[in-house]
Amino acid sequence: MGLKSLLAKPFADYIAKRVYDAAKNAVANQEKIMMELVQTAAQTQFGKDHNFSNVHNYEDFKAAVPVRDYEALRYYIDKMVDGESDVLWPGKPLYLAKTSGTTSGVKYIPLTKASIPNHINSARNALLMYVHETRNTDFISGKMIFLQGSPVLGEKNGIKTGRLSGIVYHFVPGYLLRNRMPSYTINCIEDWETKVEAIAHETISERMSLISGIPPWVLMYFEKLTAISGKKTVKEIFPDFSLFVYGGVNYEPYRSKIEAIVGKKIPSIETYPASEGFIAYQDSQSAEGLLLNVDSGIFFEFIPAGEIFNENPTRVMLKDVQIGVNYALILNNNAGLWGYNIGDTIKFVSLNPYRIVVSGRIKHFISAFGEHVIGEEVEYALLKAAEEEQIEIVEFTVAPQVNPESGLPYHEWFIEFGTQPSNLTTFAAKVDEHLQHKNIYYKDLITGKILRSLEITLVKEGGFRNFMKAKGKLGGQNKVARLSNDRLIADELKEWTVC
């Protein structure tokens, strides 16, 4: 056992105690963070405009700070991007994390000296909580790969800019640098297909023990490895591969295919990072959900998802949340985001400690007829049917068909199968049945003959990957939207469907 593996266990125990102590005092920590954020930003332009000097409790805070998305906060963000100081947070940001917006074009999310530890320490803590619980340190002595965006940074009015994963690359702890892959040169390759092939060639002879990334792009890396090596499974190439760290999308649609190509079940850690903050991570291999980051510079608020577009929605802090309610997640943080609607929906599965699951995206739903079907429901319905039929799903997305050529409207499911169902009509009926079970409004529309049962459109092998490539969104943090309330994705995807 190496020195790092030897030291990891006592350090993991120390961190775990701190994490669980914070979790036990989650409500008090959140109240404290709220007031610290307000007091620190009181003399900024935003703080003055929103009367922070008179905010003394959560009711004052709600009255002072409205809920906003990026566009609504853009007046302040643009000033910050233009190089002004003391706009949303004291001074200037250290970095601007670039993300893609559907209506905003490129979005710039501030990262400050105060907020950087949230991203770095949370990723570290996720690994250490795994060590604390399992006592497994095998992965520490091997090589680790993080499939991510380029670490090359640009500059905008004196502030460095780049993708979050590229920014975080520059904060890797020194004790991990010798273990980390790929090399800086290869990590700087912009074209994703070229980059994955180069990574595969560079790592194929290494002793890889930890692999991290968004599941569909990790799968692409695995496929490239087996193609180059001529071997059937990743475990033949990397016998020491013992831990998979992922985030960004639900792993379940990819689990069976990844485990098949790896050649064994692999322990995994789920994380919930975003440019706006590292929100939660899996702290236990046995408990459901992700531990909310209650003591890391973020003050969380929650709005019942069905009220998010109301003029005066119900808005609560941590102490008033309930298990099973679908909430829109609102952030306030030490990078200067205030009342920020991140666009995600979550549900609490535990209140002691506070653990969550990600249920979908606010803008990713179907309610063309009032059914309000969400990502969690379509994933459940498809995976349940796939399990019953013992078939493999590669990727999918769902859109409403409001004006069919004949008959009633329906939901159109675009699915790329790894293994085809023996009878597509029977499979579609099973998916529809499971969706009706999950969503009573959808069931009422079916039984009331407002909608007819869903229809499946087959996507060609590699179709979703080619679709993402054509849109310039292959790799990195990009992922396919599970469902849409319009036909934009559906119409663009037609080129890769089976006629």
Textual characterization of the structure:
There is one protein chain. By secondary structure, this protein is of the alpha/beta class. The chain has 3 domains: 3-116 and 274-361, no CATH class; 137-266, no CATH class; 365-496, 2-Layer Sandwich (GMP Synthetase, Chain A, domain 3), CATH 3.30.300. 38% of the residues lie in helices and 22% in strands. It contains 18 helices and 20 strands. The protein has helices spanning 3-24, 26-40, 45-49, 58-64, 70-81, 116-134, 164-169, 174-177, 184-187, 192-203, 215-229, 234-237, 252-262, 375-389, 424-438, 440-447, 463-470, 488-493, and strands at 95-101, 105-111, 143-146, 154-156, 159-162, 180-181, 208-212, 243-247, 268-274, 277-281, 290-292, 298-304, 327-333, 340-351, 354-361, 365-366, 373-374, 393-401, 410-417, 455-458. The strands form 4 sheets. Strands 6-3-7-8-9-10-11-15-14-13-12 form an 11-stranded mixed β-sheet. It has a 4-stranded mixed β-sheet with strand order 2-1-5-4. α1 crosses α6 (116-134), α10 (192-203) crosses α11 and α15 (424-438) packs across α16 (440-447). The longest helix is centred in the first third of the chain and has 22 residues, at 3-24. The relative contact order is 0.11. The mean pLDDT is 92.
